Design the sequence.
């Protein structure tokens, strides 16, 4: 149990709130477990028809807790808390919506690739700095991004790993709407209630058909990414990147080949 992820039913919508503001909502193993549990809860409860992931007006999440990263990932990726969460999210059969503001870093961006609707505040800074941290793509991003955006755009986001704005995300087709940060959650919640009022089996069938073309390849990609990711976490490049973050400096990769 952790109070760093809060869940609350609002009508037939399960609101899942990432709640660790002092660490920019960075996600620990326990928080991933709670996020995965929320997806399972939604699956099991017939009265839940939609899930909303959110943070607060200023921050969605700064991604994986970098101290946890430094400690590595135990065992098979899909059985780790982050792997379990990502697989549950990718396989969710009910609609999932995200309301994001401020930093949406690492998994804070890749988890959105598995959401059905995404609403972003105009203060959102998306970023997938995996290569910048000596790591590699995760969450199926190495398949979904080139498929949706084209190879060079995906490579730019994943290899340069620079932050991009809500306007950029809108132009790339990664979000549905840009909001005033104070309104992002209510706008998203409104969409959730509309989804919850739709015919549930029709919505499940629609989601299943939208996911079908990439389903098998996605699973395969997520397993390959997970394996590579776990290896990269143990690399000297990643160690240098994590040390640099703690020391509040830029990493120096000049000595690596
Ligand atoms: N893991 C652990 N701690 C984190 C963190 C993370 N991913 N992101 C932020 N924090 C901590 C900071 O170390 C800082 O702690 P301190 O107050 O003890 O110094 C605190 O949260 C506030 O963060 P800060 O960097 O001061 O906020 P900011 O508004 O200037 O910047 C970010 C916000 C998200 C841009 C910046 O924190 C950042 O780049 N975080 C790392 C993101 C990342 O690389 N995530 C992994 C993705 S794979």
Sequence:
């Amino acid at each position: 149990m952790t109070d760093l992820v809060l869940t609350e039913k609002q009508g037939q919508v399960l609101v899942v709130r990432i709640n660790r503001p002092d660490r920019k909502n960075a996600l620990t193993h326990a928080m991933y477990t709670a996020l995965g549990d929320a997806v399972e809860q939604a699956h099991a409860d017939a009265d839940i028809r939609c899930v909303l992931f959110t943070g607060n007006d200023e921050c969605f999440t700064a991604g994986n807790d970098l101290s946890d990263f430094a400690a590595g990932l135990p065992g098979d990726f899909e059985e780790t808390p982050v792997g379990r969460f990502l697989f549950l999210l990718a396989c969710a059969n009910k609609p999932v919506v995200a309301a994001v503001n401020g930093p949406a870093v690492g998994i804070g961006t890749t988890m959105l690739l598995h959401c059905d609707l995404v609403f972003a505040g105009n203060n959102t800074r998306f970023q997938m700095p995996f290569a910048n941290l000596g790591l590699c793509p995760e969450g199926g991003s190495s398949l979904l991004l080139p498929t949706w955006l084209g190879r060079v755009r995906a490579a730019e986001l994943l290899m340069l790993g620079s932050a991009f704005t809500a306007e950029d995300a809108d132009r790339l087709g990664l979000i549905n709407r840009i909001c005033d940060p104070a309104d992002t959650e209510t706008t998203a919640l409104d969409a959730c209630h509309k989804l919850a009022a739709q015919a549930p089996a029709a919505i499940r069938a629609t989601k299943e058909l939208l996911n079908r073309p990439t389903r098998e390849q996605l699973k395969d990609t997520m397993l390959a990414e997970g394996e590579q990711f776990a290896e990269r976490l143990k690399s000297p490049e990643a160690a240098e990147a994590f040390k640099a973050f703690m020391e509040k400096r830029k990493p120096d990769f000049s000595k690596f080949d």
Notes: Residues 5-180 form a domain with the 2-enoyl-CoA Hydratase; Chain A, domain 1 fold (CATH 3.90.226.10). The two ends are 43 Å apart (CA to CA). Strands lie at 5-10, 13-18, 50-54, 96-100, 103-105, 117-121, 125-127, 164-165, 177-179. DSSP finds eleven helices and nine strands in the chain.
